[in-house]
Amino acid sequence: MLLCRTHKSATQLSSGHSYLLQCKMSSALPTFGFSTTAEEVVDALASEVTGKNVLITGTSLNGLGFETARAIAKRANLVIITGHNAPRLQLSADAISKDQPKANVRALVLDLSSLAAVRKAAAVVNAYSEPLHVLIHNAADTNGVYTLTVDGFESQMAVDHFSPFLFTKLLLPKLLASTSASWVPRVVAVSSEAVYMGPGIDLSLPSLAKPAPGSPQMEYFVRYHEAKSANVLFAKGITQRSGGKIRAYSLHPGTIFTNVHEKEANAAMLKSVGALTEDGKPNTEIFKWKSIPQGAATTVIAAFDPRLSDKSGSFLIDGVEANDKLTPILTDPASAVRLWKLTEEVIGEEFDF
């Protein structure tokens, strides 16, 4: 919305004196939906995206994070892409630069399976001269098998929640430095519709950090459900605690066939629930699939759409608020408080604004 002001009052208008007249000129934004692509969102929100500095985790080729970065790079001032494998990360950087020759792309090695590595990467970002307008947590552990990180935590929760929590804490000064009269920094957590397909998240420390092998929490889909639920509660926790200094959102990107689905453990699980056919192809008879460009759209909307400014903490589907889809444990403010405190205990430090 554009505001134009002159300085004459209505009564002074006829006498030729100065006046104050406010006129509101709204530039209507399009309605985003299931079929909207990330690039269409960037073009529609060009004034919001232009000049921004954005960091996106998990940007491997043929993935949602890569497409999110590629689309945003079209207009942003700086796009920082991350990955734990330096050669693969460089392939992504080269592909974006080839597609968007004028883009300013910076590759950052980030291993979310190690809290020490997260601290190292955060120190690199904090040494950059630019502030950070948007932080997008897209990366996730998709191995589908029970493993422990170097810190002794179950890997899905560590990569999907503990490390993003710490990374956000460490980058908070960079985010706050982007604040202006027209911008409040944003944090976006890519979650999943899996959050409303299970019993909820067990908010006890042993289960959260290191559930026993063979426990119900370690069934592939249940743990994925819990890790993605943590994303939702993290966004709500930021909203609760930041006092309006940060806007945060979680989202379901849609059902998309990406490089993740080609992993053996993931494919087996998806076949078991009918999402993939026996030959590993998307089952279009049961699920409505999005393309990767369509799947990345809601992430870009969460990062920039001004219509979400008063909806911080929301869970989004197809670019719009969908809090009604959440289970009671994910809408209870006490759950976000509990998870926040437990996560502080896990990482060994408090996260205050």
Automatic annotation (TrEMBL):
InterPro entries cross-referenced by the UniProt entry: NAD(P)-bd_dom_sf, SDR_fam
Keywords: Oxidoreductase
GO molecular function: oxidoreductase activity
Signal peptide: none
Family classification: Belongs to the short-chain dehydrogenases/reductases (SDR) family.
Name used for this protein in its record: Short-chain dehydrogenase/reductase family protein
